[in-house]
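hiii, so i know i said id send this last week but things got crazy w the move. better late than never?? heres the sequnce for the chain we talked about at the cafe, plus the structure i predicted for it. fair warning i was half asleep when i ran it
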Amino acid sequence: EGSLSAAEALERLPLRVGDLFAQLKQSHSAQQSDQLLQELNVVYERAQTQRDRLGFSCSERRNDLGRMVGDARASLREAEVRLTLLQDHSQKLQLGIDHSLAEVNRLQEQYLEHRETCEKSQRRNHDALALLSKDLPLAQSLVAAVTQTCTGGGSSPPALVECSLPDGFIVTFKDA
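okay and structure toks below
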């Protein structure tokens, strides 16, 4: 706190005290001096009381505000930590979603390929069945024509002979 000049101090005094001080300077009477000192003491005590009250109030308020600022900073740090954790968790979830989406797309493509392959196989099987159905009467008439010359029931299949060799077995027809 800076010091005041006498003129600045006089300007800050209550009007009555300033007038008494001016009269004292001019007359130099003891009665006016005592009255001025009493008035100055009252002003000083009032100012000191006010200063003390404001000082304590200010100090308490400063301490309270300091605690509030400290608490707010701690809360902010905690919120920032939670925000960071939440952002990390969100990124992990997004990464999981991206992987899942890629897997779904891969499975969808695989499904479409399998469905196309299955449809092609069904068409080939249908076409092959149609060809076989078309060839069936011809094959039946061919079998009937070939087996017509065979004697009924007296034929037997040719006999087979099994020979053992050092590297395995061989099966052949038996000589007639």
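btw The beta strands are 160-165, 168-173. thought thatd interest u
miss u guys!!
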